[in-house]
Design a protein that fits this description.
β1 and β2 form a beta hairpin. This protein has one domain: Mitochondrial biogenesis AIM24 (Double-stranded beta-helix), CATH 3.60.160. It is mainly beta and 260 residues long. The chain is globular and about 60 Å long. It contains 4 helices and 17 strands. Strands 9, 11, 12, 14, 15, 16 and 17 form a 7-stranded antiparallel β-sheet that branches. Strands 5-6-3-10-13-8 form a 6-stranded antiparallel β-sheet, with no helix packed on it. Strands 1-2-7-4 form a 4-stranded antiparallel β-sheet, with no helix packed on it.
């Protein structure tokens, strides 16, 4: 199914929004609850699945939607369609925001190998109608048992634009038969030509006292890779009342010793 050709612009810096402009009868699909605002003429429907395969049976739709629940995502997706914009050219806009502070990455799937990209399980935000959103399970046993973020991935496939959200600063790398080792939670997305695995860090001393975790993600091959500087688990950790940053920023050298 050919994807709808949508126009967009990214708004903001630290907490970004993607504003999508739809021609009459154009549609964009999004995760439930991602919509920020929409202009008159935009109507939305909650459906089971992405709608990329209109001839799917009900059982097929239930199965595909059910696999999304395995990754913790909603069983349903929301379809926003311009059914009669009030502007002179009939266009109308709808905007989506990420569920936590971060950056939005626009990806043109036509430029990806095999028209697809693999994304961390909670990274998908929205995409042009016709994009197939499915679950990909990492086949590496080490990823299964130790990877956490790396075991269940989302696969976006199509010939249109898709938008992925991530935390902090985004680093885009082009690997050319190279290997890159990364904190497991900092991998946002990568092309299917990249081999993804989870490997143990250095010796026992490094594992216990290094502060970098017991395992690192290893990305190897040729293709694009997107990384994030602040995954959601790190953000939660530093904001917790008793997190690792709870004693920083105090007003005196005595810290919080005499604070209530």
């Amino acid at each position: 199914m050919q994807s709808h050709e949508i126009d967009y612009r990214i708004l903001g810096e630290s907490i970004q929004v993607v504003e999508v402009e739809l021609d009459p009868q154009e549609t964009v699909i999004a995760e439930a609850g991602a919509m920020l605002y929409m202009e008159e003429g935009i109507n939305f429907k909650t459906k089971m699945g992405d709608g990329s395969e209109a001839n799917d049976s009900l059982l097929g739709k239930i199965f595909k939607a059910g696999t999304r629940m395995v990754s913790g995502e909603s069983l349903f997706m929301t379809h926003f369609t311009n059914e009669g914009g009030r502007s002179a050219n009939g266009k109308a806009k709808v905007a989506f925001s990420a569920p936590y502070p971060g950056t939005i990455i626009p990806i043109d799937l036509r430029n990806m190998h095999n028209n697809e990209v693999l994304v961390q399980k909670d990274g998908f935000l929205c995409a042009a109608y016709g994009t197939k959103v499915s679950i990909a399970f990492n086949k590496k046993l080490t990823s299964t048992f130790f990877g956490g973020e790396g075991f269940i991935l989302q696969k976006l496939k199509g010939d249109g634009k898709a938008f992925v959200h991530a935390g902090g600063t985004i680093i885009e790398r082009q690997l050319n038969n190279e290997t890159l080792r990364v904190d497991t939670g900092c991998v946002v997305a990568f092309e299917p030509t990249i081999d993804f695995d989870i490997q143990r860090t250095g010796g026992l001393r490094s594992m216990v006292f290094g502060g970098e975790g017991l395992f690192l993600a290893t990305l190897r091959g040729t293709g694009k890779v997107w990384l994030q500087s602040m995954p959601i688990r790190k953000l939660i950790d530093v904001l917790l009342p008793h997190g690792k940053n709870s004693d920083k920023g105090s007003s005196s050298i005595l810290g919080g010793l005499f604070e209530e």
